[in-house]
Specification:
By secondary structure, the chain is mainly alpha-helical. It contains three helices and two strands. Strand 1 and strand 2 form a beta hairpin. 7% of the residues are buried.
Length: 89
């Protein structure tokens, strides 16, 4: 389980990105990179890190399911993901 501070920080970053998205788009279109540099760092979309929706784990998170590889395997073995099963050959 990731620490609560990491999860809360990502929520804050996502809110900041959403707040400045339109302004950043306009500044980029105008080519005003000096004004763009004065915006908060967390307003850039590249600052968002994908976290597991269940545990908050930051590594090996599948975008399609928004779940880490560990939880994905557990859910698949429980049969909670339709069409997914353990490979056997």
């Amino acid at each position: 389980m990731a620490c609560k501070s990491t999860i809360e920080r990502m929520k804050r970053v996502e809110a900041t990105v959403k707040k400045y998205a339109e302004l950043r788009r306009k500044l980029k279109a105008a080519g005003d990179y000096a004004a763009l540099a004065k915006l908060p760092r967390d307003s850039s979309a590249t600052r968002i890190k994908s976290l597991c929706a269940l545990t908050g784990r930051s590594r090996a998170v599948y975008r399609k399911f928004k779940v880490s590889r560990i939880k994905l395997r557990e859910l698949a073995l429980e049969g909670k993901i339709p069409g997914m099963r353990k490979a056997s050959w």
